[in-house]
């Protein structure tokens, strides 16, 4: 009489037989295709603090491909991939950053000591990802158990439908296969999650080995502009920027080149006034409508004239001692927010707030690229960053026509003024933080706001609604902007900050 197989061998045979069954194969496929992405989406980010900033660590929603890059999300809506961190499998790391928080002591967000702390920061992020991954492992086990239970119910329903009328369904006959199917599903889910985790760790660590700077990690938006035009001699300084520095609305210079006319440069621009104050020649490259991507680091088309990048022109100036920069409102499309606040009863809604945050995040990246270009200029000229002035008074004046705006518009009120002031401060925070990071000097011009009495009996500093270029400096305001830059240049230059990265 043949020997009966041992219970353990019988259990293994039943388990292998169940592993090849159609219901179990379908269960494993559902876990792999649906369960794993669902767990990635539902597992909350684990938050860590790096350089005083809150960073959420998790994984991006896996696209339908076998491998892809990690991702950074700024302020919830600005996303960009990390091309050097390529990961095979569904778990591709994602970092959520912002909004940036200023330190309590008002020091720069990224001071000179930040690079020396980079190793600890990476370890904090890695620990956060491991914590997220372990929570996800618990989630995938739960998902496999739920899927197994649902699949077991479906198997019982199918068996019940196949039972002949009047026959009794033997539940015990199905309990064993369902238990084995669920066990196989849980083991498969854990194996898939473990394999994806190992692949994510390997891809991330391999990618980070090639990273030597933040620019290497996220990629540069564009290369630094090449030198443009003939060499320029005989000037001590230069002014680059937008319509505030060009002083649109004023008399044109004499003689005026076609480029001067296209850019709206005036005879009393910041460059012209600065040259008079310091008794030296100052090159005026500022242009109305200029932004960092279109004007300073890239070409700009203005009034049918294609203007080369202002930074490219700077690179051709010989023996340049200083550069004054005035930029910002055009990069944020500030006119949109002014129109919004003047034209609607309220302008502090989430839609405009989210749009401002998105533009500010893009502006911060562009400022970093611009300041990198200026820091590498030949001859190491001094750089003065002009902050954006606030055109509105601190208190609302209902009798001021510049508060009412165009006919039929609701105009401004105290809440709108406070909102615009706060957004202008955040713009200046980006400029000031970048200047401190690169060791540049800042100039903070104080222009008498609209509706306020003129100082020194010299007339208003800003053009109102009844003038050619509202919110832009008058000749007096342009002189005050130049005086603030001259005062900044009179302060001794600070020593250069320590190197970005420690010696290796």
Folded structure, characterized:
α2 packs antiparallel against α3 (118-162) and α11 runs parallel beside α13 (414-438). The protein is elongated. It starts with 6 loop residues before the first helix and ends in a 14-residue tail after the last helix. Residues 105-119, 212-219 and 499-504 have low confidence and may be disordered. The strands form three sheets. It has a five-stranded mixed sheet with strand order 1-2-5-3-4. A five-stranded parallel sheet has the order 7-6-10-11-12, sandwiched between helices. It has 14 helices and twelve strands. The longest helix is centred in the first third of the chain and has 45 residues, at 118-162. 35% of the residues are buried. The protein folds into two domains: 9-218, no CATH class; 237-490, 3-Layer(aba) Sandwich (Rossmann fold), CATH 3.40.50. With 504 residues, it is α/β, with parallel strands linked by helices. β1 and β2 form a beta hairpin. The protein has helices at 7-19, 22-42, 118-162, 171-208, 214-218, 243-246, 258-263, 270-278, 310-314, 334-343, 350-375, 401-404, 414-438, 475-490; strands at residues 46-50, 53-59, 67-74, 78-88, 93-97, 237-241, 282-284, 300-302, 305-307, 322-326, 382-386, 441-443.
């Amino acid at each position: 009489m043949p020997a009966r197989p041992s219970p353990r061998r019988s259990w293994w045979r039943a388990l292998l037989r169940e592993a090849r069954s159609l219901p179990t194969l379908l269960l494993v496929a559902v876990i792999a295709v649906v369960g794993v992405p669902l767990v990635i989406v539902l597992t909350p980010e684990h938050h860590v603090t790096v350089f005083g900033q809150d960073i959420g660590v998790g994984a991006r929603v896996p696209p339908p491909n076998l491998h892809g890059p990690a991702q950074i999300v700024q302020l919830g809506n600005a996303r960009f991939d990390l091309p050097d961190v390529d990961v095979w499998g569904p778990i591709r790391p994602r970092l959520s950053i912002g909004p940036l928080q200023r330190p309590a002591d008002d020091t720069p967000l990224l001071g000179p000591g930040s690079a020396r702390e980079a190793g600890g920061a990476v370890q904090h992020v890695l620990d956060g990802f491991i914590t997220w991954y372990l929570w996800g492992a618990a989630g995938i086990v739960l998902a496999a158990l739920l899927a197994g239970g649902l699949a077991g119910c479906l198997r019982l329903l199918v068996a019940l439908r196949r039972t002949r009328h009047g026959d009794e369904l033997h539940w015990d006959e199905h309990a064993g296969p369902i238990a084995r199917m669920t066990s196989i599903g849980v083991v498969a889910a854990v194996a898939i999650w473990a394999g994806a985790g190992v692949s994510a760790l390997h891809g991330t660590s391999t990618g980070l080995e090639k990273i030597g700077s933040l620019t290497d990690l996220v990629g540069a938006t564009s290369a630094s502009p090449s030198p443009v035009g003939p060499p320029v001699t005989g000037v001590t300084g230069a002014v680059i920027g937008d319509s505030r520095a060009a002083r649109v609305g004023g008399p044109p210079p004499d003689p005026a080149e076609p480029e001067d006319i296209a850019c709206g440069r005036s005879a009393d621009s910041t460059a012209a006034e600065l040259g008079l104050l310091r008794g030296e020649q100052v090159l005026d490259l500022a242009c109305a409508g200029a932004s960092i991507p279109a004007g300073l680091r890239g070409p700009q088309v203005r009034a049918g004239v294609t203007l080369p990048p202002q930074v490219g022109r700077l690179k051709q100036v010989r023996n340049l001692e200083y550069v004054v920069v005035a930029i910002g409102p055009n990069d944020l499309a500030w006119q949109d927010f002014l129109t919004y606040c003047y034209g609607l009863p309220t302008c502090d809604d989430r839609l405009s707030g989210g749009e401002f945050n998105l533009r500010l995040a893009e502006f911060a990246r562009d400022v970093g690229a611009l300041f990198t270009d200026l820091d590498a200029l030949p001859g190491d000229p001094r750089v003065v960053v002009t902050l954006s002035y606030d055109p509105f008074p601190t208190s609302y004046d209902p009798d001021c026509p510049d508060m009412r705006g165009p006919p039929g518009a609701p105009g401004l009120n105290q809440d709108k003024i406070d909102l615009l002031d706060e957004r202008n401060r955040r713009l200046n925070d980006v400029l000031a933080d970048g200047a401190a990071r690169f060791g540049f000097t800042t100039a903070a011009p104080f222009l008498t706001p609209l509706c306020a009495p003129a100082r020194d009996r010299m007339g208003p500093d800003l053009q109102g609604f009844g003038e050619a270029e509202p919110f832009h400096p008058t000749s007096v305001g342009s002189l005050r902007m130049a005086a603030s830059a001259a005062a900044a240049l009179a302060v001794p230059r600070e020593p250069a900050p320590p190197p970005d990265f420690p010696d290796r």
